[in-house]
Specification:
It is a single chain. This protein has 16 helices and eleven strands. Helix 8 crosses helix 13 and helix 10 (202-222) packs across helix 14 (278-291). The protein has helices spanning 5-16, 27-36, 79-89, 105-112, 149-152, 155-160, 172-182, 184-191, 195-199, 202-222, 237-241, 245-251, 265-271, 278-291, 297-307, 319-325, and strands spanning 22-24, 38-42, 47-50, 56-58, 70-72, 95-98, 117-122, 127-131, 134-137, 143-146, 165-168. The chain is of the alpha/beta class. It is globular and about 55 Å long. The strands form three sheets. It has a five-stranded mixed β-sheet.
Length: 328
């Protein structure tokens, strides 16, 4: 449900492995898949193709659907509407795994569709749409979801499909650990650069580090320990990002193992004139801060930069201008 970059990649890998998958998406995506089929590539040189005739495509939840599992991959702002559509068409108790950015999408699903079984998940890697029907995974990682009986039987299926899934008893730390990394998404979108090129610019890294620093202060006040999502613990990331370029290239070599095609999904949204998910990322930090009597001015400023002029696109900025905008 939500056949965009993540939905097409994860669902496409499952379909390529023989799992019957129905892709529900926008007309633009569904029509492209119907014409071109689905081509999936990755940073490791893998390539899978699912022909158009093999794809099951829909622009709405098909009547009479009884799926064993729903992968929810709509943008955060569309979660409640998507949940209501699923609830109207699916049997009671259908498991819905959120593969969305941000915090609390599973709670939104459960509130909008209490008859469904909502589960939180996390996608660690970057997926870029290279062309209509062509999706590329540019970074490594394994899917993560809440440990639940509804998902345990799926583990060998996801493993065989090349999208391995790990189950965790507590997802809060995992989701916040991922959100800290996602704070680079608006930085990347404003830069207009591929991810690797942006990360090689110390000015942009300083902006990313400032957003993480502010979020870590809020998480400490909230008593939340973010999971370690990279080679270093979360509290060491800001210092690593602020290193001089020559030293960062050496020390952070694993972080730079991003191929030239990788870019943030937020950059794709800006390029296509869609509203971004910045409120689900930086906005989540701001809301958590307020609940604990704090401010998060830099994350709030990033929301304003990305979203304040909607529907006009946010301005592209070089690193000096963005640092100035964030008060660095």
């Amino acid at each position: 449900m939500g056949a965009g970059a993540v939905g097409c990649y994860v669902g496409g890998c499952l379909a390529a492995a023989g799992v019957p998958v129905t892709f529900v998406g926008r007309p633009r995506v569904v029509e492209a898949l119907a014409a071109m089929g689905l081509t999936l590539t990755d940073r490791d040189g893998g390539r899978r193709v699912v022909g158009a005739s093999q794809l099951r495509l829909a622009q709405a939840v098909p009547a009479g659907s009884r799926p064993a599992l729903v992968l929810l991959a709509v943008k955060g702002g569309a979660t409640a509407q998507a949940a209501a559509e699923l609830s109207a068409g699916l049997p009671h108790g259908t498991p819905v795994l959120s593969l969305q950015n941000g915090i609390g999408n599973d709670r939104v699903v459960q509130e909008a569709a209490p008859a469904l079984h909502a589960l939180p998940g996390m996608v660690p890697y970057n997926i870029a749409e290279l062309a209509p029907g062509a999706y590329h995974r540019g970074t490594p990682g394994r899917l993560v979801a809440l440990d639940d009986a509804a998902l345990r039987l799926w583990l060998p299926v996801f493993e065989a499909a090349g999208v391995p899934l790990d189950l965790h008893a507590d997802m809060a730390g995992v989701q916040w650990g991922k959100l800290l990394l996602n704070l680079n998404n608006p930085v990347n979108a404003l830069s207009g650069l591929p991810l690797r090129d942006e990360l090689l610019d110390r000015g942009f890294r300083r902006c990313f580090a400032a957003l993480i620093d502010e979020a870590l202060s809020v998480l400490r006040a909230a008593g939340i320990e973010p999971a370690q999502m990279t080679a270093v613990p979360a509290h060491r990331l800001p210092g690593l990002l602020r290193l001089p370029d020559w030293l960062f290239r050496r020390v952070a070599a694993p972080m730079l193992k991003v191929d030239a095609k990788a870019r943030s999904s937020m950059a794709d949204d800006v390029a296509m004139g869609r509203r971004t998910e910045v409120d689900a990322l930086c906005g989540a930090v701001v809301r958590l801060a307020r609940r604990h009597g704090l401010d998060a001015p830099r994350n709030a400023r990033m929301v304003a930069l990305m979203d304040g002029g909607w529907p006009a696109p946010p301005p592209r900025m070089d690193s000096s201008r963005l640092q100035q905008a964030l008060g660095l």
